[in-house]
Amino acid sequence: MKPLAGVALGLALPVAELSAIHRGALRRHFLALGAEDRRLRFGTPAGDDFLRAYVARIDFRRDSVFGVFDEALELAGVAHLARGDGDAELGVSVLSGYRRRGIGGALLARAVLRARNWGVRALFMHCLRENGTVMHLARRQGMRIVTERGEADAWLALPPADASSQLAVVELFSGR
Q1: Are the beta carbons of 63 and 80 closer than 8 angstroms?
Q2: Helix/strand/coil for 14
């Protein structure tokens, strides 16, 4: 396990917004997930071809993708925020060697901020009920969780964007 970029310097956990130029890093991240982690992240067994196609289909003009890099500039954690009609769906994955370090929470918080600033009224995460990590993240964020037939949806109603949500983004990029 490598240290996270910036953390050794005493910086807050840095969450970067990714673009199409990061497709290779995204592909490596998802391919590095073990079989059980892939199943929990995507809700179904996900082979290498499925993951390559998933990364190729990400629309960076419509959606937002965030990542936390390690010192080797490989993605330790990724959040894909897919914009829908009035809501947004979030998927989060963190490589096993980097868990329990706040990466998932940092990615979720950054996605909530982006969704608010888009004007989205609700954020949701769909997962298998047995995905304790995502359920824990959802509860910590105050999301309402509804379970049915082995699956769970976690919902968070979002307040409208305001000066503080817009300023938070400015502060993220200015390093304050």
Answers
A1: yes
A2: coil
Residue ranges covered by each domain of the chain: 16-174
Task: Give the phi and the psi of residue 44 in degrees, each rounded to 5.
Answer: -160, 155
Q: Is the pTM of the predicted complex or chain greater than 0.85?
A: no
Tokens of 164: 């503080």
C-alpha span between 55 and 20 (Å, rounded): 10
Extended beta strands in 20-133, E state:
64-69, 75-83, 87-94, 122-128
**Contact (CB, 8 A) for 14 and 66:** no
CATH superfamily to which 16-174 belongs: Gcn5-related N-acetyltransferase (GNAT) (3.40.630.30)
> What does the pLDDT look like over 129-152, one tens digit per residue?
777 777 777 778 777 778 887 777
pLDDT at 9 over 50: no
How far does Cα 137 stand from its chain's mean position?
Answer: 11
CB atoms within 10 A of CB 28: 12
Residues β-bridged to residue 79: 66, 92
Q: What is the Cα–Cα distance from 85 to 167, expressed in whole angstroms? A: 25
Give the whole-angstrom CA distance, residue 162 versus residue 123. Answer: 17
